[in-house]
Amino acid sequence: MSNSEHTPPKKDLESPATDNTAPAAETGTGLGVAPITRRWRREDMLKRGSLALRGLAFLFSLLAFIIMASNKHGDWKDFDKYEEYRYLLAIAILSTFYTAGQVLRHVQELSTGKQMLEKRTSAMIVAYLLVSSASTAVPLTNRMREGADNIFTDSSAAAISMGFFAFISLALSALISGYKLSTQSYI
Amino acid sequence: MSNSEHTPPKKDLESPATDNTAPAAETGTGLGVAPITRRWRREDMLKRGSLALRGLAFLFSLLAFIIMASNKHGDWKDFDKYEEYRYLLAIAILSTFYTAGQVLRHVQELSTGKQMLEKRTSAMIVAYLLVSSASTAVPLTNRMREGADNIFTDSSAAAISMGFFAFISLALSALISGYKLSTQSYI
Predict the structure, then answer these.
(1) Nearest CA to A87 among A156, A169, A147?
(2) Which of A39, A61, A77, A145 fits A95 for a cystine, CB–CB 3.0-4.6 Å?
(3) What is the CATH number of domain B42-183?
(4) ipTM, 2 decimals?
(5) Contact call for residues A61 and A162 (beta carbons, < 8 A)
(6) Which part of the chain is the Casparian strip membrane protein domain (chains A, B) (predicted)?
(7) B20-58: per-residue pLDDT in tens?
(8) Domain locations along chain B
(9) CA dist., res. B110 & res. B50, Å (int)
């Protein structure tokens, strides 16, 4: 935090004579401008990381939704005969819509440059629902695979894995949002 | 945030002539001392609320642990014949030790007046484990109760409820810690 003598070298190259405030900014690095621009850059990186994680969560939720919804093979091999799989499908649909809305809002805010509202609480609630539904479906699938190992149990296992991946992405995104909260006002 | 004319009335009563800095503090209310003391009081309340919630989480974890560990009634009515119940027991033991350590550290920090370190991430991880284990054990118990309704299924349902209560307490505590993070540096 004390190495404030590193001035950004790109600034000299890309704008040598565009405005008159550039030399003032150069001499101002000793007064703490460089740490602030470094913080801005880190915040921007965190925002993009959070967006990427929510995009991943959307992708995994959508995959869990599609795989589980198409998991009907007749007889006992229908997902809607088991409450665990119905629960997983319901939460996957909810998470798909939630993360899609989040990503759209993120992109809109990144493009317009407005302040991003924190939605850590709702992301944590959806993450709790995802981990609950994914872990509920695990024992049933385990018991089925002891007896028979076919396309139905494989699809169920794939949907459960996608649910866990969506949970991990969303939980990490909520963590990053918390980190943003803790550092955004130290400037 | 603008009603800074409310001076704390207790200060006049409890320390009328103990030190010489009291009148200076009284005249300083117009310069923003009252919002700061109010913020301190709110932070103190949040700390106590977080402590109470972690105490509740400890209590519920301990209850889930005891109820599930004593849930052995012979024949098929042993908790350790089912992986869901073993998972719930393991997470209840982990959560009991974790919340006990948290409460002890909280009390120590409240009494010594030191800065409380944030442990939101670990609390969230334990909360994820609690909700995962509690919801995993639900479908098995439901299926058993369709066939037979005895002391084994009742004890299992009680332990699952305690697990959910412990999850709710710990998740709320993690939320309060996040709120502390977001306001602690606006002074």
Answers:
(1) A156
(2) A61
(3) 1.20.120
(4) 0.70
(5) yes
(6) 46-168
(7) 444 444 444 456 678 788 877 877 788 788 889 999 999
(8) 42-183
(9) 12
